Amino acid sequence: MKIAFYLLVKGDQLWVRLLRAKYRWWNAHVSPTVQSRCTPLWRGVCRVWSDVAANISWNIGDGKGVRFWFDSWLGSIGPIVNSLLNGRQLVYVEASVSDMMDSDGQWRWHRFKSLLPYAILLRIATVKISSNAPMQDFPRWNLTSHGQFRVHSTYSVRMGVQFGPTEPLWKAIPDFKGIPRIRTFIWLACLGKVLTNEVRCRRHMTLDSRCHTCGFEVETIDHILRRCPVAYSLWCSLVCPEHLGQFFQLSFKEWIFSNLTNFGFYVKDGTEWELLFGSLIWLLWNHRNEHIFEPKKMHWEPILSHGKRLQQECRSLTILARQSSVVPALARDSIRWEKPPEGWCKLNTDGAVMGELGMTSCGGVIRSD
Ligand SMILES: [Zn+2]
Q1: Long-range contacts for 131-137 (Cβ within 8 Å, ≥24 apart)?
Q2: What is the pLDDT of residue 29?
Q3: Low-confidence residues of the chain, pLDDT below 50?
Q4: What spacing in Å lies between the alpha carbon of 229 and ligand 1's midpoint?
């Protein structure tokens, strides 16, 4: 996929010119095709092309290489043919973006105004083509915020894995009020980046994926934090018997999410449960590491009492943070408008944009005293 994307964006490089000339592929809007006696590289490009094309949008330069209806050039809206009003007939089907503008760079509204919703028309109105310094249209990769191709984002697409920021778990973890290193650990655990034996095996760092504590055949992060005998007996001593079934049946991410946000639903004394829960899974991970790497220096303190001590530290930290946040609030009160020097006027401006609709507004006030 990386090579397929670079075939679009690196048109000035020799290897791209060579490949495109060899297989006579000049039009980026036409899918490349497998030809007799083509190389495995070209076969691969043809195979993944539909995935690449589905994740590309265009930054408009001169608008000549982007199809008005069928290419994605209005950000997250996608191809605007999908927004066509019911019962309307498509016109200027093969028009490029520049075909819909006159020589002064003004939109030819009469060609499409009656076919699209008002919100889409507002978005179109925000796009301008500079006739002074014409640039080529440039594709960007939709799965990254900066538009550059990244293998990680591509892997998500190919595997059907959703790492989207909209998943509520990714909002719940930053809201965790505990010690920052525990928050980081929870984040890594949910991303599957903690070096358990399962992960180490996948990265060819070891051949043994078993749990060193109990001998279970695959040591996953879920196993260490929830199902290994040490963890299992700990949770059984804390969780109400009527909730034990649900507690152990949830998927790993659901389990983390519900314990960070349900505030003690599972336990008898749920006061600041999320702080104790975070501390305990952090200590279970440390316990596993001490067991493997420093068995002689194993922590003497039971995990539960150590966890309660950490919970207390987190609580103190929260109170401290709340107290310290009072100071900047007082400081903010002293910020005020100051009049300009004699003979000058001051212009204060502000603006706002309304999300997907793209409605914008701005204003300003000129004052001298
Ligand atoms: Zn185990």
Answers
A1: 131/103, 131/104, 131/105, 134/61, 134/62, 135/61, 135/62, 136/61, 136/62, 136/65, 137/58, 137/59, 137/60, 137/61, 137/62, 137/63, 137/64, 137/65, 137/66, 137/73, 137/97
A2: 75
A3: 163, 165, 327-333
A4: 6
Q: How many angstroms does the Cα of residue 281 sit away from the middle of ligand 1? A: 14
C-alpha pair distances (Å), 122 with each of 92, 117, 279, 350: 20, 9, 50, 20
Domain positions in the chain: 2-159, 168-327, 338-369
Q: Is the Cβ–Cβ distance between 277 and 259 less than 8 Å?
A: yes
Task: Express as a percent the part of the chain with pLDDT over 70.
Answer: 88
* Centre of ligand 1 from the C-alpha of residue 266, in Å: 23
Predicted structure pTM score:
0.47
Question: What spacing in Å lies between the alpha carbon of 216 and ligand 1's midpoint?
Answer: 5
Task: Report CA(89)–ligand 1 centroid distance (Å).
Answer: 63
State in Å: Cα 161 to ligand 1 middle.
Answer: 27
What Rg, from alpha-carbon coordinates, does the chain have?
29
